[in-house]
Amino acid sequence: MKAMNRRRLISVSAVLAVASLTATAVPANAREVGVGSSEIKLGMTLPMTGAASLGYNKIPGAAKAYFDYLNANGGVNGRKITLIVKDDRYVPTEAVAKTNELILKDKVMALLAPLGTANVKAVASSLNPARRGVPVLFVNTGFSGFADVKKYPTTYAILPSYIMEAKIMGEYIKDNFAGKKIGLLYQDDDFGSDALAGFKTAGINFAVKVPYASGSQGAAAAAGWITKFKAAEADVVILFGVSSATSAMLGTAAVLKYAPQWMLGSVGGDATTIKLTGVPAGVLYNAIGFSPVPATTDMNDEYIKLFSDIYAKAVPGSVFDLNVLLGMNTAFMTAQALKAAGQNPTRKSLMAVLNTKGATLANSALTPVGYSAKSHVGLTGYWVGKYSPTGDLLPLGGTYVTYTTDSGTGAVVKSTYKRPAMPAKGLPN
Amino acid sequence: MHKLKPRAHFALFLIFGFLLFLASNRVDELRVYQGASIAVFVIAISSLILLTGYSGQVSLGHGALMAIGAYSATLARNEFQIPIIVTFFIAVLAAAVGGALLGAAAARLSGPYLAGTTLALAIGLPSLANQFSILGGEQGLLFDVGFPPLGLGEDFTQYKWFFWIAALAALISTWLLSNILSSRYGRNWRAGRSNEVAAQICGINTGRSKILAFTISAGIAGLAGALLSMTIGTVSPSAFPLALSFALLTGAVLSGVSTLSGVMIGAVTLVAIPEIADVVAHRIGSSENITTNLPGFIVSALLIVTVLFVPNGPVEQHRARAAKKAAKKKL
Fold it and tell me: Closest residue of B to A190, CA-based?
């Protein structure tokens, strides 16, 4: 038996007694939680450090850059927006702990753009924002399940689902590469199985399918993949994986002088991230890519011009890439929705706006948002482009041709969506 | 100094449990949730203290053993609708079986080889979930322990329910563990750790003794894993990263590896550091870079200070000093 004495027992009891007395009472709130007389508090958790943070850790800075611009121009109905950011290191346990702090301690009005399917699921299950009535706006994951209003009544998806993307890729292949041998590289988990489901719906038959386990991607593995694609004489190779897989494949292909027609999924298709790993931009040239938002180098686009200006002033020296654009677009949509939610916005009125007017709120994306009372599906399509000699994704023939579809068996159609004009100075109207 | 009698020892746990119960009714939801996290860490760290401190084996793979417990509890719950309390026992059993297998290999290894083997387990095992669709892949599976019983009142929050379950489990497992450690088995482990040859001469089967330590430690880690997935409502590979295994080891060192009684110190530290770091970073109004890296820095600094100044942990240090003083008085 461990030696113990009574004095320790007493001191332990005393510590506990003090701890229990320091309980904090919840003050009564006249306004909605997180909405002060001159401030609206929003919270965000995402990986800021660790392996998964590459690229994504630019999102908070981008969102803050827009909010700072907005605040300097009067905010939303006179209230400034404060964004509290916490690092979850891409671990669900930490995502729950940090979101707890955001909602229970910092008392934010809504959660903004949490990242990662497992993390968002864990928060939904444990903290249960739905039961607390807390909006979870614009989650950064392509998992189609978050659009389900019955399961996640307060969660709003934003990125098009992996199934939509695969269906649209399939449609493009049928139109442009009929009779060619198609190869597919995909991640051997639910990310990949969603892709396979989409391609199946589109009716694509592959000459060769190469799965890889998440975490196994590297130059050595890529050499093995290339052998398989070569053996099957694939004309077109689709890379439907994460950035590190795309980079490993393109980098190795450049060394081995293997050059089929590449087609890159949007998840692993951000040129800035690929180039950061040392892949020469020339390898990307003429590869086909997909994106829901305008090309980040398209200075003729009013949103890109404004956002890149704001970002360059807020975070000098940082490249304006897809993550930055998505972060700023999310912030912009939030501001629009808050403005529409009335003089004294509440969580309820904010969600009511998204359910009724969400599909018509101005934002930079070139495909429509699918919000309604029955569905919280986000963007519903992509435009098709090719990578330039400098590795920038540009629309085919200089004009954006967008396709739209759903996550089910619906057809892929050319979108007739006309983006609403940007409100004056990019401030909510 | 004198030892407490078993009955008094048990009473101490009862009183402690009652104080926790009182505290859970006084503090807000955030603290209650953090309390549940502390309870989970207490269980996980104590399993590591048993293994490393008492039986002298290193494990860098306790996160993987926690994952075994978490997944088996979740599968039992989701596939067979087994009552929640039984799922925790299943978690213990499944992880113990995993631990026994690992222990059989571990008994032949030592030092860096054992560390390497367990490290490989920590990296490899959680990603197995991606290979079998029943395990839910990267997105994970839901693990729902259900709402608290209605009899507890309408104001009874989900987090308080988590806390009660986790705290009760922590009290029971720590009590059992402290008894095991002071039993014949505990003495065998310590003997084997101090000098394996001497222990063998005394008639201790050190190989079997090591496997037993691994089995029990893994079972307790499995319980911690199941409770962890309860608190986050899901189980997924990313919930058991390598960093978790390292955090547990850090917690064990801060607690003092060679004694169970400091286990609270490590658990509280692991939960409190991020929050303290947050407050500090806020006070000095620093950049995002500092804010995100401060928790890691503080934990590392604490670890170094502990190893330098109180290598056996604060509790053991205090005890040694008290014993010295008592010995001086006697003279």
Answer: B137
The secondary structure of A197-239 as a DSSP string is HHHHHHT---SEEEEE-TT--SHHHHHHHHHHHHHTT-SEEEE
Token duo for residue B194 = 């101090």
The class of domain A162-291 in CATH terms is alpha beta
Exposed / middle / buried, residue A209 (Cβ in 10 Å: 0-12, 13-18, 19+): middle
| CATH architecture for the domain at A39-160+296-379 | 3-Layer(aba) Sandwich (3.40)
Q: Are strands A381-387 and A288-291 parallel, antiparallel or unpaired?
A: antiparallel
A213–B127 C-beta distance less than 8 A: yes
Give strand pairing partners of A389.
none
Q: What is the pTM of this model?
A: 0.86
Q: With contacts defined as CB-CB under 8 Å, which chain B residues touch A20?
A: 19, 22-23, 26-27
Q: Structure tokens of B238? A: 């990313």
CB B57, CB B207: distance < 8 Å: no
Cα A55 from Cα B51, distance rounded (Å): 40
Q: Map out the domains of chain A as residue ranges.
A: 39-160+296-379, 162-291
Phi, psi (deg, nearest 5) at residue A212: -135, 145
Q: Would you call A48 and B288 a contact, using CB atoms and an 8 Å cutoff?
A: yes
User: SS3 helix, strand, coil % of chain A, rounded to 5?
Assistant: 45, 20, 40
Q: Does A146 touch chain B (CB under 8 A)?
A: no
Residue A8 CB partners (closer than 8 Å, separation 6+) = none
**Domain spans in chain B, listed from the N-terminal domain onward:** 28-241
Are the beta carbons of B33 and A2 separated by less than 8 Å? no
A87 in contact with B, Cβ within 8 Å: yes
A22 contacts on B by Cβ (under 8 Å)? 27
Would you place residue A15 in the very low, low, confident or very high pLDDT band (cuts 50, 70, 90)? Answer: low
| A330 closest CA partner among A141, A105, A107 | A141
* Closest alpha carbon within chain B to A143: B139
Q: Tally the C-alpha atoms within 13 A of residue A2's C-alpha that lie toward its C-beta.
A: 22
The answer, for B137 touching chain A at a CB cutoff of 8 Å, is yes
Which letter does DSSP use for residue B208 in this model?
Answer: H
- Banded model confidence at residue A111, pLDDT cuts 50, 70, 90: very high
Hey, is the C-beta of B30 within 8 angstroms of any chain A C-beta?
yes
Residue A26 has pLDDT above 70, yes or no: no
A190 chain-B contacts, CB cut-off 8 A: 136-139
Q: Can you name the residues that pair with A381 across neighbouring β-strands?
A: A404
Q: Of B138, B232, B294, which to mutate for an interface test with A (greatest number of A Cβ within 10 Å)? A: B232
What are the tens digits of pLDDT across the range A224-253?
999 999 999 999 999 998 888 899 999 999
Spatial distance between the Cα atoms of A329 and A62, rounded to a whole number of angstroms: 9
CB atoms under 10 Å from CB of A123, counted, come to 31
Instruction: Flag whether the ipTM exceeds 0.90.
Output: no
Do the two domains A39-160+296-379 and A162-291 of this chain adopt the same fold? Answer: yes
Q: What angle do CA A242, A244, A250 make, to 5 degrees?
A: 105
Taking contacts as CB-CB distances below 8 angstroms, the residues of chain A near B233 are 96, 122, 124-126, 128
Please report, in tens digits, the pLDDT of each residue of chain B (331 residues total). 345 677 888 888 899 889 998 888 888 999 999 999 999 999 999 999 999 989 988 899 999 999 999 999 999 999 999 999 999 999 999 999 999 999 898 888 877 888 899 999 998 888 788 778 788 877 889 998 888 888 887 788 899 999 999 999 999 999 999 999 999 999 999 999 999 999 999 999 999 999 999 999 999 999 999 999 999 999 999 899 888 999 999 999 988 888 888 899 999 999 998 888 888 887 877 676 777 788 888 888 988 998 898 888 888 888 888 888 888 887 7
> Is residue B110 less than 8 Å (CB to CB) from chain A?
no
